[in-house]
Amino acid sequence: MTVRAVGQSVRRLDIEAKVQGRRRFPQDMSMPGMLHAVVVWAAHPHARIRRIDPSAALAVPGVVAVLTHEDVPVNEYGINIYDQPVLAGDKVRWLGDRVAVVVAESLRAAERARDLVKVDYEELPVVDNPLDGMKPDAPLVHEDRRSNLLKHIYVRRGNVEEGFAAADVIVEGSYHTPFVEHAYLQPEAGLAYIDDEGRVAVICAAQWPHDDLRQIAHALALPIERVREIVPAVGGAFGGREDISLQILVALAAWKLRRPAKMVWSREESIRGHGKRHPFYMRHRWGARRDGRLVAVEIEAVLDAGAYASTSVPVLENAVSFLAGPYVIPHARIDGYAVYTNNAVTMAMRGFGATQPPVGYELQMDRLAEALGMDPVEIRMRNLQEPGSIAVTGNRMPEVTSARETLRAAAVVAGWREGPDGWHRPDPGRPSAPYLRRGVGVACAYKNVGYSFGFDDRSTAVVELTLAADGSIQSALIRCGAVEVGQGVTTALAQLAAQTLGIGVERVRVALSDTAMTPSAGSSSASRHVFMSGNAVVSACRAALEKRDAALREESGATRVVAEATFRGRDVRRTTAYDVVDGHCEPHISYSFGTQIAVVDVDIETGAVQVAKLIAATNAGTPVNPRLCFGQVAGGVHMGVGYALMEEFIQQKGQIRTQRFSEYQIPTVADMPRELESILTEVPEPNGPYGATGLGETPTLPTAPAILNAIHDATGAWITELPATPERVWRALHGRLAEPAAPARGPCP
Are residues 218 and 74 in the same domain? Predict the structure, then answer.
């Protein structure tokens, strides 16, 4: 009998334990003799440290130690560049810098002593935005660098001057996207101890535990095999747990004091201490012929890296490849810059450099459509990439390029009609009150799947089969370091294994991530695990079946079979770095595409915007679990609505103004579209497991520009700075909204 698991809406394997409250999260963990640790945070966004005096804190009963930079063997870490101190000793560069860790017998004693650690500071000038940070006379965030410029990446294609000379219409716009808080449910928590084999073990929530090992081992000057990380249930991530947060701090305490040490951040500490989504400042100039064909683009984008590099360089790399959108453009000049400031560190967040660009390129497409008197679906159809199209980075798009399929599917459901003369929009209907104006907006977007630009992306899986006497499979255990952060990866991997092994999903168990027991699968990011880890699991299962069959032929009586397999992205598509001359490259392994159409009602008296309906068409190859796919789409739209209309982490002169959830607006169910329709356009990825590829991030990308284009359709006002709050919309309606700051024309310093 053939077992069909892929394509079924199997219930999530972890849902019952989580709903019943039985699944333990890091903050639920404790051990006998456990110490409690708290952070002494930087008091200023930019200051030199003259002296740290822990004497008063050490006098508090129950305090065991106050750890400072002098206690860290190698006082540096970072996911890409070791430019961040574990504990600041000479200088603080943002309010999230950690100056000391107080460790005590009780949490109460630790918190009391924290306020008694005296730090003498010399305040320094603050760099509070990247545009100022690029100026030649700007204060240096890192004195060992000649400027605050972290990275400049560029792409040159064709001849931009000739392209604009051939254009019948040229439109320009400046756009700004804000800092965004990850706002996951579970604040940072960790428990560290010395395990039975003498390893420093850390229990925490993480997205890439094996890379955490590298950074922890480096900071503690330990061989990597002397460090272990265990990841139980994770209360959300969205990129915010890809970087180290408190892992090294609790590891340091346990290693120095030889006792278990636990740290749990409050919500305010979580907001203060972990990175945010990158703000982008973008300037666009686009040209098109009278028939709507794009001929040239000129784009400059500056992103705020914050105080340390984190993932800003790969985020910039991704962003530059997507700044011109999923369109065929013969002439392009694109420049992207990442700049150090004294703001919050910026890092991975759902979309990873592909979320901000659509705010620019999709509003530019609507501006061109308006200038040409053309339907917004029609102008996109005339320019979208197809299989074999040449992208602005010079690469040929793969056979699964499906932007047109998603646009067509969304447009048809939304009521667009395709006639001999092109596509024609429907009447969006009338709103329910005279003070409301209704509009409809379209946006397309695309996203890489897997790590890019020459990175050796890989995932390893181990499959252990338990066999009956006749060789039939009683159960299967999958060991793979793919962390379940809420996206449903363990369920998807179990379905892929069940399909390959020919058994029911209920016979498959996926082990939790423990670096001592599960092989590295890379990070839970880049929408990569179904593609990367899914391929690894399928290959390991096939290898296990071969071993099982060999055991049966040999009549060995084996009741246990183990097989391991590693899948490498470069084996199906080898990516390359940006060329130093023109920026051309083979950027990505695989792609996911999406189109969204939003219908909004705008209150012209207050500026309030309500999304009446949103249609989301997304392609992720063959869906492994349609119900989980819908969950990813709905969750992505939820984040996109927040990005579009309300979410903004505010800093002024490096000071945090949104310190808690009461000051940071997150969309509730009342803010979601009153009607959400998800369409999965199935264009199988030939290199994916059973035709599947990634989905998790793509549904977030088109939401904000679709809503912004709908606001313009309803009111005639362009909102070019996120979020489109009622005040910002009202000011735009009344002509009082200034254009957002933009990069200076020409080469930046």
Answer: yes
Which residues make Cβ contacts (< 8 Å) with residue 729, sequence separation at least 6? 602, 607, 608, 609, 711, 715, 717, 719
Sign of CA dihedral 683, 687, 689, 693: negative
Q: Count Cβ atoms below 10 Å from residue 696 Cβ, excluding itself.
A: 32
DSSP state of 240: T
pLDDT at 747 over 60: no
CB atoms near residue 169 (< 10 Å): 16
Determine the pLDDT at residue 744.
66
Helix (H, G, I), strand (E, B) or coil at 210: helix
Contacts of residue 301, defined as CB under 8 A and 6 or more positions apart, other chains included, come to 280, 281, 282, 283, 319, 320, 323, 334, 335, 336, 337, 356, 357, 360, 743
- Mean pLDDT of the 148-156 span: 98
Model's pTM, two decimal places?
0.97
Q: Check whether residue 550 and residue 685 sit in a common domain.
A: no
Q: Which two tokens stand for residue 581?
A: 């001359």
| pLDDT tens, position by position, 609-618 | 999 999 999 9
Q: What span, in angstroms and rounded, lies between the C-alpha atoms of 617 and 420?
A: 24
Look at the block and give the residue holding tokens 């690894």. 536
Q: In this structure, are 289 and 438 located in the same domain?
A: yes
Q: Does residue 436 carry a pLDDT above 60?
A: yes
Domain-ending residue, one of 571, 605, 625? 571
Residue 585's domain comprises: 276-452+577-733
Distance between CA 641 and CA 703 in Å, rounded? 6
Helix (H, G, I), strand (E, B), or coil: what is residue 77?
strand
CB atoms within 10 A of CB 464: 18
Max CA distance (Å), the chain? 84
In a domain, 89, yes or no: yes
Q: What is the CATH number of the domain that holds 634?
A: 3.30.365.10
